[in-house]
Write a structure and sequence with these properties.
The protein is an alpha+beta fold. It is built from one helix and four strands. The chain has one domain. Strands 2-1-3-4 form a four-stranded antiparallel beta sheet, with helices on one face. The longest helix has 15 residues. The radius of gyration is 13 Å and the shape is elongated.
Length: 78
């Protein structure tokens, strides 16, 4: 019974708050879909008050399968 873990972090610059969490997914496809949905919703400047997004998918062995950071805080890092 393999599980996949979606790690999500985002920063709201207007409130200076961090939203973070881990979501458990039953399949790698479900984890991938959520990974791309999170980046699409919050990354790349798609939400005005969000200036940092980090998302990754790991498996039960701790292997990092997907990883991306969108950084609107540090100039030239995006």
């Amino acid at each position: 019974m393999e599980k996949y873990f979606l790690h999500q972090i985002k920063h709201n610059k207007a409130e200076d708050t961090w939203d973070k969490g881990i979501v458990v997914k039953d399949t790698l496809d479900a984890a991938r879909q959520s990974y791309h949905a999170y980046l699409g919703a919050y990354g790349y400047g798609n939400q005005a008050d969000t200036d940092y997004v980090q998302v990754e998918v790991t498996d039960m062995a701790g292997n990092r399968l997907l990883f991306e950071v969108w950084n609107g805080v540090v100039e030239g890092v995006e």
